[in-house]
Amino acid sequence: MNEIVAPALRFEQQALAGTGIVKTERRIRDLGDIYFYRDAWKQMPGDELVYEVESYLPVADGTEGGLFLGITRIHPGKVGREYFMTKGHFHKIRNRAEIYMGMEGEGMLILMDEHRHTWAEKMFPGSLHYIHANIAHRTANTGNTVFSFGAVWPADAGHDYATISEGGFSKILVEQQQGPVLIDRI
Ligand code: M6P
Ligand code: ZN
């Protein structure tokens, strides 16, 4: 018997290929509650694609000790002065960490603790980021090309989007002459 088998999945030009990949798309119309510049958002075409996620979910959602893997691709663009970005979330089970890995393009990992202190880390091909437990996380594309990154997170972490859609992050990442800057959200 041959005990050497083909892998279940592979990276193919910055995408995940193989069986059992779940794809999620987020368009402008899905993201009304996260962008700061509402008037600019209202004027954009609702079906414009902002980001897509391909996830490999080899165990049931909620499995203790299991791991999930995802590739997120954020297209270049802005809503007003704010860069295209993900919804962002805390984990439902707050004490679950996550790892992000920059793959292509340039971006920013925006982090916020439970006291609403917000900071950011630059992301680029090969950058590695350990997102500690109890920290909300969101990514933004700060370049002119597609920004993609890999993520690995515990299968029982879950996503708490409600806390972010109600209160947002305390700072927003906007384009200024010198490049991306985090400013207080007033
Ligand atoms: C990463 C992971 C996923 C997450 C995705 C998009 O791939 O953190 O769990 O779903 O980014 O982020 P969000 O769910 O906040 O839109
Ligand atoms: Zn997460």
Descriptive report:
The chain is mainly beta. Helix content is 6%, strand content 45%. The chain has two helices and 15 strands. The strands form five sheets. It has a six-stranded antiparallel sheet with strand order 3-4-5-13-8-11, with no helix packed on it. A hairpin with a 2-residue loop joins strand 1 and strand 2. The longest helix has 6 residues. The chain is globular. The protein starts with 8 loop residues before the first strand and ends with a strand. The mean pLDDT is 95. Bound molecules: 6-O-phosphono-alpha-D-mannopyranose (M6P) and zinc ion. The site of zinc ion has 5 residues, from loops.
- Number of E-type strands: 15
| Total DSSP helices | 2
Estimate the helix proportion, in percent: under 10%
Poorly predicted runs are none
Sheet/helix structural class? mainly beta
Output the helix-strand order. EEEHEEEEEEEEEEHEE
Main pleated-sheet profile: 6 strands, antiparallel
Tell me what portion of residues adopts beta-strand conformation: over 45%
Ligand names: 6-O-phosphono-alpha-D-mannopyranose, zinc ion
Strand order of the largest sheet: 3-4-5-13-8-11
**General form:** globular
Query: What is the mean predicted local confidence, pLDDT?
Result: 95
Distance between the termini: 65 Å
* CA-based gyration radius: 17 Å
